Every structure is written in C-alpha cells, then in structure tokens.
C-alpha cells in the first residue's frame, strides 16, 4: 500500500510510515506506540533488514488462529454488521 512501489511487496512501506506519509489512519497509529514505532524506524533505516523474516513468522502465527465454525461463529453478509 505504498505509491512508490505499488507493484512489488517490499519494505518501502515502513519508510513512508516513518515519514508520516502512510495512506491510512492505521498506518499513522503505528507511530503512537513506542514498540511499533521503534520497529517501523528500524525497518525504515535498515531497508527492511528483518521484514521478510518477520512477515513469515506473522503468517505462521496467523495460520494458528482457529476458525470459528458451527454455532460458535458466523459468516457475515456485510462485514460491518452482525447478521
């Protein structure tokens, strides 16, 4: 989601966020927390030295999130509303 490299998946996003040039409010919110701000700054100054490794770990962790099924969960007709 960065205009400079919209056709590639890379670490340039962090450089834009560090300069407060992210596209979304959630991008700016990354700089409100000291831990995430430090991470953004690290990735921006080291040209994403650990970005792809960190991304891989995040995807594995997200894969461990259980999917709600049956009476426990629901598929929403509209994401913003409970059916």
Automatic annotation (TrEMBL):
Keywords: Calcium, Heme, Iron, Metal-binding, Oxidoreductase, Peroxidase. The keyword Metal-binding applies. It catalyses: 2 a phenolic donor + H2O2 = 2 a phenolic radical donor + 2 H2O. Its EC number is 1.11.1.7. Signal peptide: none annotated. It is an enzyme of class 1 (oxidoreductase). Its cofactor is Ca(2+); heme b. One of its GO terms (molecular function) is lactoperoxidase activity. GO terms for biological process: response to oxidative stress. Binds 2 calcium ions per subunit. Residues 1-83 form the Plant heme peroxidase family profile domain. Ca(2+) binds at residues 2, 10. Belongs to the peroxidase family. PANTHER family: PEROXIDASE, PTHR31517. This is peroxidase. The gene is PER56_0.
